[in-house]
Amino acid sequence: MQERLAAFITRQLGVESVAIANLRGLPGGASRETWSLDVSFERAGKHTFMPLVLRRDLPTRPGQTSRRDEFLLLQAAHADGVPVPKVHWLGDDSETLGAPFLALM
Prior knowledge:
There is one protein chain. By secondary structure, the chain is of the alpha+beta class. It is built from two helices and five strands. The longest helix is centred in the last third of the chain and has 13 residues.
């Protein structure tokens, strides 16, 4: 999972590579898996660190709602100043992590 996620984030950021550290599952969530991770990368000689949360549908149990709809709703709410997590990426294919997911901060 860590390698596939690193490849996905590398493509999304358009950088040479990213490092993922501290990937760990968080308790709770009957309908989705929740993971915590730290991403670091370099761009234009500047090192960047991003703590993220990943919410993924259970591979054996598709979500009740669309990840794309959830992504767009959270994105719009954040843009309007509603105190919600900032979404970074949507993985709406099953190829990357076996099920749709959101990466948010």
